[in-house]
Amino acid sequence: MFSRVCLRRAGLLALAVLLSGLSASVAYAENSAIVPVPREDNGWMARHQSMNDRVKQGNVDLLFIGDSITHGWEGAGKEVWNEYYPNRNAVNLGIGGDQTQHVLWRLDNGNIDNITPKLAVIMIGTNNCRGNSAAEIAEGVEAIVKKLRTKLPEMRILLLAIFPRTDVDAETQQKIKDATAQFAAAVAADPMVEFMDIGPAFLNEKGELPKDVMPDLLHPNAKGYEIEAKVLEPVISRLLAAAGGWTPLFNGKDLSGWEAVGGKSSWQAKDGILFTEGAGGAWLSTTKEYGDFDLSLEFKIPKGGNSGVFIRAPRSGNPAFEGSEIQVLDDADEQYKDLKPYQFTGSVYSTIAATPRVTKPFGQWQKMEIHIQGQKITVTVNGTKVVDGDLSEHMDLVKDHPGLKRTSGFIGLQDHSSRLDYRNILIREIK
């Protein structure tokens, strides 16, 4: 039997434990930025449900997670979004007005269920500035990253600094900077998380935030979203490539890894795009040779444009025949109506005709994927396989097309007297 003293001590211990638990709960609840909650308005819930409906469809490789600035990709940023992200199976998980706690609730309630995205781009926290300290905001952002790392451990994260804003007082502006510095430091050790501050890209030469980029000094307009996309492009491309086992052939900044062959070059690199002005001169060759590989790239053709992707090419002679060429063309242009079937986009030039023809109208970004292993070759354009062939079955052409016998060589881009833009050029070697 317990004595009264023992009972008293047990009671005091139990009370201490209870108070300790209550104290911890109160401390936890004091930071609203880390307590998942939904918003109560019907419009918010409808938006949340629409995102869940999209996610249920699957085919999600890239997520954008955030508040009104992310949501705005569907408004002022719509044209820019359509230029950069549809080919990447991107989904917008932004809701105007959201704070970190709302994002945390969404992540627990369907926004990322049953998907395996490769990359999430996150920018959140500016709406917490009125009710939370810098440390609390940082803790809220860290909680989002932690939740994503737990639920989707194979997904990479690009964590963006909170955008600069001058529609608030100097104290709040400093709070934003302090919060960003704190959550950037907190995630620095995680190799799956990369921090990036793109705020300076929006400032003018005086270091000011101009209204022709952010009219309300907080939300980008179309020009602002174009700036954001261009700054993010090389990083998104690199992280998506790494997640899929790909290696970028183009770094988005310069011609490193490439050399001009066969004349005067007009090839340039700018804002994540590798392009020629169409002088009809040198073709652009990789500095490394490749044998069996998967190659993925995007291209944009002007009206009447003409180019091609060389594979297994030597640096002497005509690379379209000494190696092989996968045609890139404005198929619908009137001047090309009488071409041979093997001369349209996706065809192995002069060898295997692409069918069906699935190119988009000129001026739009399009995607091409080339798989070559031994003599087997497939070409996919805009998601449709247009070539599925065997080069060894065309050796009757080898006298004029000796490249059909080659098993390795350089990858190249053709300059054929018209402007041509390429981006997101990725390779995955097959060993």
Principal-axes geometry comes out as: elongated
**What gap, in angstroms, lies between the N and C termini?**
76 Å
| Low-confidence regions | 1-28
Percent strand: 15-25%
Backbone CA Rg: 27 Å
Secondary structure tally, helices: 9
Oligomer classification: single chain
Derived from helix and strand composition plus strand pairing, the structural class reads: alpha+beta
β-strand number = 18
Instruction: Report mean pLDDT, rounded to a whole number.
Output: 92
Largest sheet: 8 strands, antiparallel
Name the CATH superfamily assignment of the largest domain: SGNH hydrolase
CATH topology of the largest domain: Rossmann fold
- Just give the CATH class of the largest domain: Alpha Beta
Helices and strands, in order, run as HHEHHEHEHEHEHEEEEEEEHEEEEEE
**CATH-derived architecture of the largest domain:** 3-Layer(aba) Sandwich
State the share of residues found in helices, binned by percent. Answer: 25-40%
Question: What is the number of independent domains?
Answer: 2
Please characterize this protein's 3D structure.
- The protein has 431 residues and is an alpha+beta fold.
- The protein is 29% helix and 24% strand.
- The protein contains nine helices and 18 strands.
- Strands 6, 8, 9, 11, 14, 15, 16 and 18 form an eight-stranded antiparallel β-sheet that branches.
- A hairpin with a 2-residue loop joins strand 8 (267-270) and strand 9.
- The radius of gyration is 27 Å and the shape is elongated.
